[in-house]
Amino acid sequence: MKHTLPPLPYAMDALEPHISKETLEYHYSKHHQAYITNLNKLLEGSEFESASLEEIIKNASDGLFNNAAQVWNHTFYWNSLSPDSHLKPSGILADAINEKWNSFDKFKEVFTKSCVSNFGSGWTWLIKKADGSLDIVNTSNAATPLTGSDIPLLTCDVWEHAYYIDYRNLRPKYIEAFWELANWDFAEENFV
Questions:
Q1: pLDDT tens digits along 72-89
Q2: How far is 63 from 65, CA to CA, in rounded Å?
Q3: pTM of the model
């Protein structure tokens, strides 16, 4: 099965001024595409050649896992962003956030701190645990909650290529911009 670059859920310039078209041209068109190209090469003749992306992530290791997980993580990240962000969740997700962190502002503070302190390259996730409660987890490199029982709701890519063109080495400024774009409708769909 050949994997292809999924279309962005918005135009390349739709996230401006928070994330530039130039960043998306590199991050989506080059980085994300490179993971897909590498994955397809690695899959040729392997036992996972006709497996779904999720099956590869849950059962493969090394290069196959890394490339498959990065394809999935990036696709999830693009959907975690929206030019039509509501700036905060509503409904049952908002209730769950308030139950766990007492307020959306406190949640934002904790999530931001996790993003900023996530050492090296990786991802910060809002997840729903098996017991239904929420948590924030950091993963390194290509690691993803998909390999366990946690359900990812929203993610922030903290690999440097996600923000270097727009914010250079100022990860905290990028995280501020992330809050202007967080797709709470997508997170709510994942929560239900």
A1: 999 999 999 999 988 899
A2: 5
A3: 0.97
Predicted local distance difference test score (pLDDT) of residue 1 = 74
CATH topology of domain 21-80: Helix Hairpins (1.10.287)
State which amino acid sits at residue 96. A
Residue 94: Cβ-neighbour burial (10 angstroms; 0-12, 13-18, 19+):
middle
C-alpha span between 54 and 44 (Å, rounded):
17
Q: How many CB atoms lie within 10 A of CB 159?
A: 20
Q: Is the distance from CB of 83 to CB of 9 less than 8 angstroms?
A: no
Domain covering 91-191, topology:
minor pseudopilin epsh fold (3.55.40)
Annotated binding site for Mn(2+): 27, 74, 157, 161
- Going from N- to C-terminal start, the domains of the chain cover 21-80, 91-191
Mean pLDDT score, 110-134:
97
Check if the beta carbon of residue 77 is closer than 8 Å to that of residue 90. no
Q: Which residue numbers belong to the known binding site?
A: 27, 74, 157, 161
Look at the block and give the residue holding tokens 């041209």: 25
